[in-house]
Amino acid sequence: MKNAKAEYWNPQVETMKRDELEKLQLKKLKWQVERVYKHSEFYRERFKKVGVKPEDIKSLDDISKLPVVTKGELRQEQTSYPPFGRYAVAPPSDWRELHPSTGTTGVPVNTLWTYRDTEIITDHTARLIWGFGVRKEDVIQNGFSYGLWVAGIAVHYAAAKIGSFVIPIGATSSERQIYYLQHAKSTVLFATPSFGLYISEKLKEKGVKPEDINLRIGSFGGEAGTENPATRKRLEDGLGIDAYDFYGLAEIGPTFAAECREKAGLHFVEDHYLIEVLDPETREPLSVGEKGVLVITHLSREGTPMIRYWTNDIVKLEDEKCGCGRTHIRAVGGILGRADDMIVFKGENVYPSQIEEVIRSFPELGNEYKIVVTKSEDTGIVTNVEVLAELATEVKNVGELKERVKKALRDFLLVRVEVEILPPNSLERTEFKAKRVEFVLE
């Protein structure tokens, strides 16, 4: 059993020098590209269309010669060639688990894990949660879904590998979550940030103070927000914890990036995933420090490997060694938004995460908010943006508060948006991923 005082799960890999790490990545990339070219008609067709063969990949930069793949293309592939498309590379005899994506529209994108894939996912998830302090002595309340969204099962496997005691509660009701927080004395909570905030609200309603429960760590994924300073503060104050960001995608891996105790950005597991950032319009590679769309390539995946998967998530990367000593690349500030959620309004790019930061900086306002975006049906141009926020408690002068919120939003977004202040508990809560942007046509 690993020494609980050890800083790293795998020190050799986690602190590897950048040049050594990149050599390892290139070796794995060549293996993966050659493998999918040989065994996947889906990828072979795409590579031939752009005139690239496996032997053309001689450096990590050569990955840009290959086309990106989107979720829509994967969905179309599986519709045309059911049930798993032509990018299911490993033979059926090696398959262990099936995990569809969580999309609510269209055909789900099915991903396959082989036995080795499952072992790798388990190990690097253990590495990530070890990095923010999970140990054998912990009681883990796993509020991630055990259904379509696969983070729950990955955390479960990883906790078992560490040796922790696990409560596989899933994304069930807040009442049950609170019962086990009080009676099982859970020390670590996994959930979406929205659900974490909701649990903190319910604890307060019941008169349960953070010091009355045993939680010390909260890890939150499934949606952006944990690294938003105002949201992190609400999670930490409301639950009495250190809050850490966690990131994953069903198509890539349920859990492959997380914060360390430095809280200085999401560390990616670069020995298994090649990370790029591309311009959202031109799809040209961007340099470290530039904001763009995260694109990921599997370096180790056997079942359904992704080559240059377009995540649609906006990030800004940092490749300097972290204060924790880890050398793997980080997304500073976590996921900054979704490319398809970006609102272009009066010439400014507005992300929901920016609005979140402002709303949650006001103690008078509750945790929930909604953004209603009105577009012209004829032109598609955004004509109005309204932010619906709710009071945390009764306020004497709501009009004065509304004006302060409007001014703070205008100063931060550089554009004027409408604001509506609602009574407490007016907006819907969720035990899974919150959908806070609504588009309407006029």
Cα(first) to Cα(last) distance is: 62 Å
Give me the CATH architecture of the largest domain, please.
3-Layer(aba) Sandwich
Main structural class:
alpha/beta
Overall 3D geometry? globular
Rg on CA atoms, Å: 22 Å
Question: What is the helix tally?
Answer: 11
Largest sheet: 12 strands, mixed
User: How many structural domains does the protein architecture include?
Assistant: 2
The CATH class of the largest domain is identified as Alpha Beta
How many beta-strand elements?
Answer: 20
Query: Helical amount among residues, as a percent range?
Result: 25-40%
Give the amount of beta strand, in percent. 15-25%
Mean pLDDT: 93
- Low-pLDDT runs: none
What name is given to the CATH topology of the largest domain? Rossmann fold
**Name of the CATH superfamily of the largest domain:** ANL, N-terminal domain
